[in-house]
Amino acid sequence: MGPVSLLEEVVQDLERHSAQEGWDAAPRLYALVQSTELRREEPELADQLNLSPDVDTLAALEQPALPEQSAVEDALATIAWPETVTGCALVLERVVLPPGAEGEIPEDEGEAAEWAAKHPAREDVRMVVGVLRDGTRHSALRLRRHDVDDEVLVGPDLVPALADALAATFEPDEPGEAAAG
């Protein structure tokens, strides 16, 4: 299986796992590590994750909790991954409003969040976006009102701004804090 297929597989696995846990979850960041690398560096962890020694896959290792949803992009800007991390993925829920609603949003951030949460045309969306160090991307989107597995949207560029923010965590000229593994 090539890197794109491995990334698609891990993004879809993270999406299914998130769907089983339900809605209204905090953002979750994952380091993606080749299972052969993990087996070599952390054999006990590889065993705990039931990673087969015969198949090289991408293992998704959940990272420490991120800040509240509005500051996720800012938190990503502080992350720099060690070379052993092949990619990363983020699971994030957002409220999406219809076009034209932007002009009605209150200035105050707290009021704006409450207003959006009560908007009759709001749409709750769960996004799972993964990127590899080589630039490969994949994402999955699930709408709360269409909360069934066969209506999950998938593709490489569904959330380009978020994929760009994740890809920036691999840029060497952007020093930041290393994420824990």
Give an overview of the whole structure:
With 181 residues, the chain is an alpha+beta fold. It has one domain. It has helices spanning 3-21, 35-41, 43-48, 72-76, 109-118, 160-167, and strands spanning 28-34, 58-62, 79-80, 87-96, 123-132, 137-143, 153-155, 177-178. It has a six-stranded antiparallel beta sheet. Strands 3-8 form a two-stranded parallel sheet. Strand 5 (123-132) and strand 6 (137-143) form a beta hairpin. The longest helix is centred in the first third of the chain and has 19 residues, at 3-21. It is globular, with a radius of gyration of 17 Å.
Query: Which whole number gives the mean pLDDT?
Result: 84
Largest sheet: 6 strands, antiparallel
Q: Using only CA atoms, what is the Rg?
A: 17 Å
Main β-sheet, spatial strand arrangement = 2-1-4-5-6-7
Oligomer: single chain
Number of strands: 8
The structure class reads: alpha+beta
Count of structural domains: 1
Helix content: 25-40%
- Dominant shape: globular
Q: In DSSP terms, counting alpha (H) and pi (I) runs of 4 or more, how many helices?
A: 6
Poorly predicted runs are: 174-181
Indicate the proportion of strand residues. 25-35%
What labels would you give this structure?
about 180 residues; alpha+beta; 6-stranded antiparallel sheet; two-stranded parallel sheet; 6 helices; disordered C terminus
